[in-house]
Each structure stands twice: as structure tokens, then as C-alpha cells.
Design a protein that fits this description.
CATH superfamily of the largest domain: Vaccinia Virus protein VP39
Order of helices and strands: HEHEHEHEEHEHHEEEHHHHHH
Number of strands: 9
Largest sheet: 7 strands, mixed
Structural class: alpha/beta
Radius of gyration: 21 Å
Shape: elongated
CATH architecture of the largest domain: 3-Layer(aba) Sandwich
Distance between the termini: 63 Å
Bound molecules: S-adenosyl-L-homocysteine
CATH topology of the largest domain: Rossmann fold
Amino acid sequence: MVESILDEYGITGGDHDQHFLVDEHFLNKIVDSAELNEDDTVLEIGAGIGNLTVKIAGWVGKLIAVELDPYLCAILRERFADYDNVEIIEGDILDVELPVFNKVVANLPYSISSHITFKLLKHDFELGILMYQYEFARRMISPKNTKDYSRLTVTTNFFADASIIMKVPRSAFKPAPEVKSAVVKLIPRPASFEVVDEDFFLTFVTAVFGQRRKKLRNAILNTNNKLGINNIKEIINTLPNEYMNKRAENLEPSELAYIANQLFKFKTENS
Ligand code: SAH
């Protein structure tokens, strides 16, 4: 069925990360994992020809599907013309203002995974079931002291619990991508540690992981143009040496938050 739609419309995929999930087993597992019900308003990103869309639509009160490709949007509008609960938004997910939704379910365009994820995490929702490139998914959940522990890990951890719920082989897609995939479950929740100023914390995390081979002391000095703190050298000397002598990749999110909070305090007191 799914494959016949691709053939009928002569869609070969390729552009815009177009790798359509055609394996019924994985489509069903994604939808099951979202535990959908009629009170849900679901956002789908990159609906393609509607393989996931059609399965989600059967369960939920409202489904808002964003798709960039005008040709695919035309197909989606035709396919879902008789559905009262499906809205198709033609546009770039990075440009559209996100609607109100409580769940997000999507087989994402991988090349913009980071941008989409950071945008989503700052938004209010209850549950995300999202397909990513496997390596990207690993980076979302890796512990400190590993090469995959990154700005993405710390930011994800700040906003949500994240776990890989299944790996998905290349053969589940048409055309098959060159990379393996994984589905990540995201459950937003308040962080278990205090962050005084969210924007400053996120800027700090971006800055210090941009210098991940440097000790925190130098990473902060080198990126103070972004942090904007007066007397930064003096201030660094007041911060715990045990943190300053480690790299960002060796510190827990809560430890990074502690340093960010201290810096933010100095910044506001001395500006
Ligand atoms: N969900 C479908 C298609 C996944 S492929 C399926 O599983 O079969 C990724 C989809 O994202 C493609 O349809 C592609 O056109 C779309 N896409 C790519 N970049 C996008 C963007 N910036 N905004 C919205 N959709 C995008």
C-alpha cells in the first residue's frame, strides 16, 4: 500500500532527506509508543506521503502535519481531504511558528535534527516519539566522559528524559538511507538541578562544548565574548578548581549548571 503510493506518484525520494518509512512493523511500533488517544493534538514533522500520518490520524483528536515539499503537500492534501482532524501546513519546520500540541511524532529529516530538536525542547509538550539517525540518537543520551557527550546531551537532559526505544534498519525505508536509525522517546520535565537563567545556561553550554578539548577555565576565557562577563579572569579564580581543571565533557549537566549560575550571578551583579 505504502509502496504503491510512491510508485503511483513517481516519487523516488532523496532530496530534503526524503526516506520514507515503509515497513509496517516499525510504523506500527512508533504509533503504539505514542499511546495516542482522542484528546491528543499531535504535531508531525516531515509527513512525506503520509505513511505515519494515516496511522496517527486514526487515533487522535487533531493532527497537524508540517511538510516542506510542495509536491508532497499536494499528495497529502488529496490523501487527507476527507479527514476532519488532519491539518497540513506547507512550510519549513524551522520557520513555522509551532502550533499548540501535546505530542510530537515524526520520522525527521535528519540533516536538520539538531535545529528541530532544540526548537522542540523549548516548546511545551508531553511526549515525543522521534526517528533520528542512530548516531544522533546516541549523542542525545550518552553519559559524561564519552565522545558522544555534547551540547546536545546536556541540553536534552536539561529539558527532558530521553531514551532510545528501538533501532531501525536501513531496509525499513524507501529509498534506503546510508545510515542506521533509531527512535527516541522524549518526555519533557523540569530539570533535577537549578538553572537561574535558562538562556545564559544554554549559551554557556554551547560556548564550552565549542571548546570541548579545553579545560573549562580556558573554554570560558576563550568564549567570554559570548558570555559577556566583566573581570572574567578574577571571577574564574573564585570558581571551584576541581571544575575549572576539567573539560566540559567531564562534567555532569548539574555541575555545568552550577558554574553557569555562578557566572550569571557575577554578570548581573557587575553590569
Ligand atoms: N514521515 C515520512 C517522511 C519522512 S522523510 C515517512 O516516514 O515516510 C522526511 C520528510 O521531511 C520528507 O518528506 C521531507 O520532504 C520533509 N522535510 C525535509 N525538510 C523539512 C523541513 N525543513 N520542514 C518540514 N519538512 C521537511
